[in-house]
Amino acid sequence: MIKNILILSIAFSFSDMCFAEEDSKWFIGFGLGSAEYDGSNFSGSDNLISLSGGYIFSGIFSFEAGYIDLGNVKDRIIPDNVISIHPDTLSLEAQGFTIASKFSWEVAEPLALSAKLGVSILDIDKQWSGGTVFNSTLTNDTGGTETEFFFGAQLQYIVGEKLTIELNWDRYKVEDVDIDGIYGKVNIHF
Asked: How far is it between the farthest Cα atoms of the chain?
């Protein structure tokens, strides 16, 4: 169902581009904030960096593509079904590209609320170290690329025709870990 909604919104955005009015605008944005990692036995936070660009088709619909770095978080864990007096260390790093459709509603001028639905293609680096055998630490490095749906919300302050400031919240899923991105972003329109 979510996949169909995303496909329809992307198709709508490209069909609407042909009929876009003169006041529709391209934008680029830069964001900074925090990525909060939360799993069943893993949690932590790190800095978040976002670079994006997009096109506003109408007052309520826009399309956005970008790069996001969700940081690198380390946590001490005790694996399930293991008896250990020394907890293991798990490090998880996620970064990659996003494509999203945004639907906006003007609350009161100059404020707007937006809902975001998209796809993330994240490069995952997962490092585990733990256990000691003959005074050596066992390690395992895994990773790969994960393609998942993500969603979010934003509060936007419209400074003028050329500048908007946003407060964003996005939810990403990496394996069994939820990542909440909370960040401020500045968009320049042209």
From this structure: 71
